[in-house]
Structures are given as C-alpha cells and as structure tokens.
Amino acid sequence: MSTKINLSTRGSELLFYRAALSLSSRTLSYLSDLIRRHRKKIRSPWRRLNAGQQALLVLVHLRKDETLTEVAAGFGVGVATAWRYIREAIALLAARAPRLDTVLRAARRAGYPYLVLDGTLIPIDRVAADRPYYSGKHKKHGMNIQVLAAPDGTPLWTSGSLPGSVHDLKAARIWGILRRLNASDLIVLADKGYVGAGEHVRVPYKGDPAG
C-alpha cells in the first residue's frame, strides 16, 4: 500500500525515494516491543502508524537526523504527530537506561582496568542569541552529554543533557559522576577538560601509554 502526500517546504514540493537504514532488525524489534507494551498499558486508541512503523520513524529520525517535516512526510503523518511519536519513544528508551551506580558496580565485576570519561556535544538548531547553548570549544550550538565507556570504547552510560556552554568538568560534577567515581575506587581516563576532577580521574599526558 502506498500513500501519496503532497507537501511543500520553502515553496518546493518534497520528492520521495527509497532509502536504507544502517540498523539491525533486532534494534527495530526491541523498540517496537517497547512501544507495543506501552500502548497496551495506557490503552492507547487507534493510531495512524502501528508500533513497528512508529519505531522505524523514530529510528530514522535519530539515526539520519532528518527533520520533522521530512520524516513526517516520509511516513504519511503530520509534523505534530511525528514529534509526539518521537518524544514518546525517547521517553520509553530513557526509562530503561542503566543508572550510573549500576554501571559502576558492573564495571567492577567485569574487572575493567579503567573506564573512559568524555563529553560530547550534540548539535542543535539555535539562533545566535541563545548563548547558553553555544559551545566555544566546538564553535556551535548544542547540548553537553557526558559518556562513560569501557576500555574498548563501548558506551556504558550517558548523562542527561546540559546547555553546550557548560564545561565538561562542571557537567561531571552536576551529574554526580565524580562523587560516585571516588566512592567506587575505579580509575577513569579523561581529557584535559577534566583537570582537577580528583584522584580517581586521570588525565593522560603526551606520551603516556594509557593515552
């Protein structure tokens, strides 16, 4: 079944094409099941897209960073509906994210020689006046996210988001990362943005084998 949608953006009609998403069917099934169980729990009425289609819409948006207008047109729903679908799915995923204390206990059991702490900037669309979201380090607007990873780089935990102007060290303190690391006795490697973080956060110097 196909749905023909005529939408215009900035005076031009949208063109439709087939596309592939570089994610496994297991990922799609996982999110689809979360959405399906949530709909059953809240006794959701009929929706334009079934749970599997909603999951795919969300994954396309998150993976390919397509705009709401683009993803809504591609799935035959309104922009407001696409936004609600995305917000709903993100909340479901966030609720299942492991807590930092749980991750640190698991890291100790796994016997990791160290963990890696780093901050990343998630770009967002903002105007120049939105200074709290502007990162001087990256020269763009965004949200500061703290990531704790295993020695091989596998992400173990991510923090919530803060405005891009927030320094990595301050963000780590806000989320209680440093306090929990000190209590866990785990060694963590980090870049120079975390200088002064504490005895359990080590900033490798040039030529350091661990760096």
Report on the structure:
Its cofactor is a divalent metal cation. Residues 117-207 form the DDE Tnp4 domain. This protein has 2 domains: 8-95; 100-202, no CATH class. With 211 residues, the protein is α/β, with parallel strands linked by helices. Helix 1 crosses helix 2 and helix 2 crosses helix 4 (79-95). The termini are far apart. The protein has helices spanning 25-42, 51-64, 68-75, 79-95, 100-110, 168-174, 177-184, and strands at residues 8-9, 12-13, 115-123, 134-135, 140-149, 155-163, 188-189, 201-202. It contains 7 helices and 8 strands; from the N terminus they run ββαααααββββααββ. Helix content is 39%, strand content 18%. The strands form 2 sheets. Strands 3, 4, 5, 6, 7 and 8 form a 6-stranded mixed β-sheet that branches. A two-stranded antiparallel ribbon has the order 1-2. Residues 1-9 have low confidence and may be disordered.
Provide the fold topology.
Layout: E1 8-9, E2 12-13, H1 25-42, H2 51-64, H3 68-75, H4 79-95, H5 100-110, E3 115-123, E4 134-135, E5 140-149, E6 155-163, H6 168-174, H7 177-184, E7 188-189, E8 201-202
Helix pairs in contact: 1-2, 1-4, 2-3, 2-4, 3-4, 5-7
Uncertain spans: 1-9
- Main pleated-sheet profile: 6 strands, mixed
The helix-and-strand class reads alpha/beta
The residue fraction in helices comes out at 25-40%
State the end-to-end distance. 54 Å
Count of runs of 4 or more consecutive helical residues: 7
Instruction: Assign an overall shape.
Output: globular
Strand content: 15-25%
Q: From N to C, what is the helix and strand string?
A: EEHHHHHEEEEHHEE
